[in-house]
Structures are given as C-alpha cells and as structure tokens.
Amino acid sequence: MTARGPKANYKLGRQIAPYLYLSPSLIVVGLLMLLPMAMVIAYSFQESAVLRPDTSFAGFRHYRAIFGDEVFWASLWHTLYFTVASVVMHMAIGLAFALMLNSDRISPMLRSVLRVLYILPWLFTQVIIAVIWRLMLDPNGVVNSILVDLGIIGSKVAWFSSVETALHAVTFANIWAGYPLFMVSLLAGLQGIPKDLYEAADIDGATGPQKLVFITIPQLMPIIVSISLLDFIWTMQVFPLIWLTTGGGPIYATEVLSTYTYKLAFSQYNLAQAAASAVTILLISIGLTLFYIRHQKAR
Amino acid sequence: MAEVVLENICKTYGNSFRAIRDLNLEIADGEFLILVGPSGCGKSTALRMIAGLEDITSGHLSIGGRDVVDMAPKDRDIAMVFQSYALYPHMTVFENIGFSMRLAGKKKAERKKRVDEIARTLQLTELLDSKPANLSGGQRQRVAMGRAMVREPAAFLMDEPLSNLDAKLRVQMRAEIASLQRQLGVTTIYVTHDQVEAMTMGDRVAVMKGGILQQVDTPKRLYDAPVNAFVAGFIGSPSMNLFEADLSRGTLQTPGFSLQLPETVLAERPALRKYDGGKIVFGARPEDLYDSTLASGRSHQTVPAEVVSVEELGSEHVVHLRLDATPVDSGDPDAVEELGGLSNAVARFEPASAVSADSRIDLAVDCAKLHFFDPGTHLAIR
Ligand SMILES: Nc1ncnc2c1ncn2[C@@H]1O[C@H](COP(=O)(O)OP(=O)(O)O)[C@@H](O)[C@H]1O
Ligand SMILES: [Mg+2]
Fold first, then answer.
1. For residue A1, what pLDDT band results from cuts at 50, 70 and 90?
2. With bands split at pLDDT 50, 70 and 90, how would you rate the model's confidence at A289?
3. Which has the least CB within 10 A, A277, B156, B302, B349?
4. Confidence category of residue B13, pLDDT binned at 50, 70, 90
5. Residues 6+ positions from A177 with CB-CB distance below 8 Å
6. B89/A219 Cβ within 8 A
7. Min CA distance, A196 vs chain B (Å)?
C-alpha cells in the first residue's frame, strides 16, 4: 500500500458511513412505499391493470374517465369541505381549550381535570370514534333525544343517513376526533411565551382581546401554520371514519376521494381507474407536502 | 407634573412571605431615584407594585396626586423598561415603539411622526424596520427606552435595564440614560443591584434590604453618613471594612492593636460616650487606609497588618490585608465572600506603594474618617 492508502480509506469510509447507516430505512421505504407508488402510477396508465396478464398502454384514458365523472368532482368538493372545516375547527377549538388550560384564572385542580377530559378523543382510534358517533347520532340516540327535549329540533334526525346532514355529521365527528393535536401543541406554545411580553402589553394599554391578537396569536403563528399543514395533509386522506359511519353515502353525499378510490377498486374492480384516482390524491398530497417542507425550511 | 408617593406599602406573597414591609418613599416631580439593594431584597416587587403589575397588599400609592392603588397599569400613566427588555419579537422596531399609540387609536401619520422623532433621539432611525432578534444588546436596550418614551408618561420605571449588557456598554448606557432623564425631566424610578449605578446616576438613592427600606439620601450623604452597617458595607466598592473593638477612654482596643480616637471625632459624636467601657463596631473605608511609608500615610496612627495579596490596577493598588481583629458582617450577601478568605480588610493604596504579598506592614489609619456602629443593632452612632 502507498503512504496515501490509509488516509484515502479513512476518507472514503467517512463518506460512505452515513449511507450505510441510512440504508436499512431506505430499503424499507423503497420496498413498502416507493415501489407500490411506482406500481400504482404504472397501473393508472394501463388497460385492465392487475386483472389480466396482457395489459396495454392506455395513455390518459383513465384520467379522462375520472375527470369526466361527476362523482369524482363531488368527492373532491366533499374532501375539500371536510378538510378545510376540520382544520379550521381543530385550530379554533384547540386554541380555545389551550387558552383555557393555560389560564391562571382557573384553579390548578380544575385545570388538570379538564386537561384529561379534553385530551380523551385522542385515546380512541378512528374505528372506535366511528362507532361512538354512530351510536350517539343514531335516530334513537342520545343527541337526538337531548335536542328534541330541548326543543331545538322538532323531530328526530337521521344525521348520518340523510343527504342534507350526512357530510356535516362526519365532519363534526372528525372535528371532535382531531382537535387534541392542536390543543396540546398550542398549549406547549403558550407556555413558551415570555410573561413579560404580556406585562409590557399591559403597560402599553392592551386589553385582553388585543393581547390575544397582537401577542398570543403572532407568537403561536409558526405552530399554527405547521400543524395546520400537517392536519390538512392527514385529514385529506381520512378513510376509516367515513367508511364506517356513512360509507360515502347516502347517494354519494359523503363521498370523498379516499372512499371514491376504494369503491372504484374493490366494488367495481376498476383497478386502473382507482389507480388514476389515487395518483390524483398523491399529487395533491405532494403539493401540500412540498409547501409544508418549504415552510419548515423558511423558519 | 408627577410626584410618586408610597405610603406604608406592604407586599405579602402567597399570604405568608412578606416581600416588602412598610415602604415609605416620596419621589419628587422630575427626580431620578435609584432603588438599590442586594438581589432578592424586594426591589422588583416594589417597582412592579408601582407599575400595577403586582397587587399592593396594603398601603397607599399615588402618582401625580391620583390614588392609583386600584388602577390598571395602563391607567397609571407610567412606562416601564424591563430587565429582559420584553420587546415584541414579531414586531419591527417601529411597531414596537409605536405599539401603545396604535392601541390608543392614533393615526398612522401621527404615529410615524412621533416614532421618527424618538428614533432620532435614540439613534434608531436606520433600524426602524428591523426585528429585535437582529439587534445588538445596546440597540435593544434603546428600543425599550423608546417604547417607554413614546407615551410621554408621568413616570419611568426601570428594572435593572443595563444588567444584560457587557461592562463597556453598561458604562456608556449609564451616562446616556442619566442624560436622557435630565433632558426629559420625567420622574424616574430606577432599580439596580449595582451600587456603582446607584452612586453615579441618580439624584437620590434608596437602599433596601430584606424588604425593608434602610436609607434614602443623596449618593454623597449615603457614602459619608450611612445610617447603619449594612448601608455602610453595601455602598462603596470595595466595601467598608468593619471590625469589632472595645472602647475605653477614647481608645479602640482589638486583640492585635489599639487606636486612639482624636478629640474631634468624640466631640462630633456625643453618643459615643455611652459606649465607653463596652463593645463597638468601627468601620474604615479602603481609601482611608494608607501605606505608612508614603507621605500621605505619615501623619496617621498605624496598626500591624499582613499583606495577603495586591491587585495593581494602574491608578491604584487594591491591597488585601489581614488584621488581628474580628471582622463584622454587614449583612450584604455580596461582601460575605471576602470574609471567608484569608484576608479580612481591603485598602486602596497609591500606585507608588511598594508593598508586596506575604509581607508585614504598618497600616496607617485615618481615624478622623472612621465610622461607628452599635454592636447589637448595627445602627450608626452619631
Ligand atoms: N410571585 C412571587 N411569589 C412568591 N415570592 C416571590 C414572587 N416574586 C418574588 N418573590 C420573592 O420576593 C422576594 C423579592 O423579590 P424581588 O422583588 O424580585 O427581588 P429583587 O428584585 O430585589 O431581586 C424574593 O425573595 C423572591 O423570592
Ligand atoms: Mg429584580
């Protein structure tokens, strides 16, 4: 070996080491995520994908079919409504509860009880949440009997199975299921805001609401933006909650992109079109994710 | 036009800890009052009660003749500069300074005019669009000052505003704040634990210890005539040397030496006579101790001392000494460390002095400048 040998080996070793460490996770991600993704993308451009061995190139035919389908556009619209309403309400409720839990006007005892109560929805999986709300919102369920007793509604409403209310009902269940993430993140954020900022604002003449607008919310903004983006990405893809409450019905009233795709694949066995629909969801998710990453980098 | 008057103010935290006891202070209109004391003595608590950030447990407080005890901070017509500056991180310098005007519903044009004016006074004009995170410590400090000035308050309250700056900047800002205050003529209460700030900045200094006001006076009076051993030890750097002695027929007697008090000293302090034949505490400032081999020291009585170490500062030598006498703790937590060491006295010698560590010298004491305190109460004997 030349005198340069050990040095060069050392350098090479240092350059390779990080990739060696990363390789197990890269292999797992490649096999379980990238490969299926590539296959789905490939299916979306094939005729009779999966179902028959002899497939041929279909071009954008499946995409045209989907974009020409009214139900796809209805699903897209429902997804948007479901997601935006969920994220906005998650944030509003999360912030309100976090403020309450952070307030020193409430006794510490009550605060710790509330903290446990408010975080409860987080303990349940989507399946259990679906079951809970199906029972609660059943025509003969608790919610109806309370609302009727209070005189708010005249007669019992089939929340999940009437076209007018179903989408609102699943959105409501999802809002209930998802606010704790915001609450916990914002509470941590609130506790990190220096007290003297509020004292300075007191002296500058700020009222309670003004302190919220000029100090608290701007201080929480980085958390609000990143959690909102994450929540948006996740909520867009929610499947079990909707599948187990309404199944996308009645008559497509709660059809969202995930249930639409599922039905294409496993009710109609149109796997190629399902793949095209899935790729559409993927593109939207990638767009949002890039936006999220850019936002994280900018911080 | 606003004087600030505190009458019998008390503060009890969590219904047991008494942070402030019976505080009485009258700060005249336009006066610069320094509130000084070791950390934890209740300075911030006192200031925050004046600001309205802390409830007053009992007592009266008026600002500009109005009783403000039950008023919110914003209605008290005061402005505060925080130790941490408490600048709004998400706002620019302009927005920080103009925030109170914005809350008061002032028009943008009016705000701009006023903020620009203040920025010019504080040399912040170039920085108006920056966020606090991009400013240096000194610049942040000036923004905090600007935010206080913009409101033209009846009184400024400042809580250790310079403690986060490095030593050099602190000296510079000390002078800037003092001259700004004179220029504006606004009543100012300035809290610090730094006795140099206390001595150089204010018209009067209020010394606190353990929630109790010790003495309020001009810096000179505080230095020359401290009311008790604590004030004597706290004001002045290095601290006054305090020792126990027996007094008999005008002579201070310690285990290792005796000093004959001049007639004038006894005549000026008639109360000293009562201590004759008993114990007494006497104090000597470091600059009243001399090197007996130099001209300045020749006329004074001497006592034997052991030199522990010498710090040559150029303009003077700070000499740490060991005397054969029992030192007395003034109660200033910062001074305790010196007592724990090998030395029990500090002197400031002229740079011409040739004393070196580990030598024995004759220390000249200017007995006319000695201070005397009661050994029990530590009150000054006059
Ligand atoms: N909110 C509080 N609750 C209980 N004790 C406090 C509180 N704030 C300060 N103290 C106590 O009151 C004393 C005086 O505090 P402070 O006024 O901050 O002192 P300083 O400003 O002179 O250092 C300290 O012993 C401190 O521990
Ligand atoms: Mg303090």
1. very low
2. confident
3. B302
4. very high
5. A121, A124, A126, A129, A241
6. yes
7. 6
CATH number for position B333: 2.40.50.140
Q: Do B90 and A206 touch (CB under 8 A)?
A: no
A-chain residues within 8 Å CB-CB of B54? Answer: none
Question: Which ranges in B52-152 belong to alpha helices (H)?
Answer: 93-103, 108-121, 137-149
Q: Is B43 in the pocket of ligand 1 (CB under 6 A)?
A: yes
pLDDT digits (tens, 9 = 90+) for B181-240: 999 999 999 999 988 899 999 999 999 999 999 999 999 999 999 999 999 999 988 899
Q: What confidence tier does B156 reach under pLDDT thresholds 50, 70, 90?
A: very high
Q: Please report whether residue B380 resides in a domain.
A: no
Confirm if B302 and B362 have CB atoms less than 8 A apart: yes
User: What is the per-residue pLDDT for B199?
Assistant: 92
Q: In chain A, what residues touch B78 (CB-CB under 8 Å)?
A: 203
Same domain, B250 and B161: no
Q: Is B42 in the pocket of ligand 1 (CB under 6 A)?
A: yes
Domain match, B99 and B117 both: yes
Which ligand has the nearest atom to the CA of B210? 1
What SS3 state is found at B5? strand
Which residues partner with B9 through β-bridges?
A: B23
The verdict on B131 and B206 lying in the same domain is: yes
Tell me the two tokens of residue B27.
Answer: 């700060």
Asked if residue B133 and residue B12 are part of one domain, the reply reads yes
Is B19's C-beta closer than 6 angstroms to any atom of ligand 1?
yes
Residue type present at position B167: A
Instruction: With beta carbons less than 8 A apart as the criterion, state whether B214 and B230 touch.
Output: yes
Structural domain range at position B165: 4-233
**B38 CA: nearest ligand 1 atom:** 22
- Percentage helix, strand, coil, to 5, in chain A? 75, 0, 25
Inter-chain residue contact A205 with B51, CB threshold 8 Å: no
Give the closest residue (by CA) to ligand 1 atom 27: B40
Site to substitute for ligand 1 among B15, B17, B54, B195, most atoms within 8 A of C-beta: B17
Residue B267 in any domain: the answer is: yes
State if pTM tops 0.90. Answer: no
Whether complex ipTM tops 0.90 = no
A82 pLDDT higher than 80: yes
Q: Is A221 in CB contact (< 8 Å) with chain B? A: yes
Domain ranges of chain A: 5-44, 62-298
Sign of CA dihedral B335, B339, B345, B346: negative
B23 CB under 6 A from ligand 1?
Answer: no
Q: B127 and B59, same structural domain? A: yes
Decide: B13 in ligand 1 pocket, CB within 6 A. yes
B339 has a pLDDT exceeding 50: no
Which atom of ligand 1 is least distant from the CA of B41? 22
Q: In the CATH scheme, what is the homologous superfamily, with its name and number, of domain A62-298?
A: MetI-like (1.10.3720.10)
